[in-house]
Amino acid sequence: MKTNIPVYDICSLTNNSKDDILISRFAHYLSVHKNLFIPHKHSFYHLVYFTQGGGSQTIDFEYVAVKPDQIYFMIPGQVHNWDFEGHVDGYIINFSAAFFQSFLLKAGYLDELPFFSGIVADSVIDIPADMQTIIPALFEELVKENAGEQLLKADMIRAILLKLFIAVSRLGNKHDNVPAYNYTLLRNFQKLIEKNYTTLKLPKEYAELLFITPNHLNALCSAMLGIPAGEVIRNRIALEAKRLLINRELGIAEIADQLNFADNSYFTKFFKKQAGVTPEEFRKHNHN
């Protein structure tokens, strides 16, 4: 697939082909990687905790204000860029999917964490006052452990990271009171969309794969996300269209074909209904 969107892996950021994790103070990271202010993608999991600074960032074309005591999480493939104001500092951690594979028996453990869903509203979290000492202390532990050469260093980093993930997961997760079965069903639906959004576009097709009725799937999405199942599917298709549209080497017809639309006209009508603008208008606005 043609692309002019930079896609970074950890190796390209550390110049070491064996690295599966990068831990750094954020101000130092920014001073080294000055090119990350333009829209780019990661092939790794990514999180930042801000201790100083302001401005904004966009995650998958959603604007988010930056402020101290805020943490955000990203999964591989999301489009991201920053527009900071003043001195910005904090902590940054990048790690590959493989980093935890040898440590956890549950291969899908990270997928169960609400902030690694790829949904921006669930991934940007303001840390409450009573945790604003605890969370930075965990990041400090990670920085110090990473700088040393103690026995089982990588496993200790994994253990501290898991402690951090659990602590953040407990901060007012809106799915806390949802039955475990419903939450698992929703995440399985979202995973199926991720794998099949170019070929399966109807709720009934996903309901069949989940062994439930379309009405059950719609009720689940409406209760947990506030939108019907069909809208969840269309939102994912529209998001991928936006990611492709910022690549000016791709024609509109090529994008329509990649997303499996019957023709360019149908794709344009779909995109305008979802995004409020035509593909050409979206591309022009984001290019400027």
From TrEMBL:
<dbReference type="InterPro" id="IPR003313">
    <property type="entry name" value="AraC-bd"/>
</dbReference>
<dbReference type="InterPro" id="IPR009057">
    <property type="entry name" value="Homeodomain-like_sf"/>
</dbReference>
<dbReference type="InterPro" id="IPR020449">
    <property type="entry name" value="Tscrpt_reg_AraC-type_HTH"/>
</dbReference>
<keyword id="KW-0805">Transcription regulation</keyword>
<dbReference type="Pfam" id="PF12833">
    <property type="entry name" value="HTH_18"/>
</dbReference>
<protein>
    <submittedName>
        <fullName>Helix-turn-helix domain-containing protein</fullName>
    </submittedName>
</protein>
<feature type="domain" description="HTH araC/xylS-type">
    <location>
        <begin position="187"/>
        <end position="285"/>
    </location>
</feature>
<dbReference type="Pfam" id="PF02311">
    <property type="entry name" value="AraC_binding"/>
</dbReference>
<dbReference type="InterPro" id="IPR018060">
    <property type="entry name" value="HTH_AraC"/>
</dbReference>
<keyword id="KW-0238">DNA-binding</keyword>
<keyword id="KW-0804">Transcription</keyword>
<dbReference type="InterPro" id="IPR037923">
    <property type="entry name" value="HTH-like"/>
</dbReference>
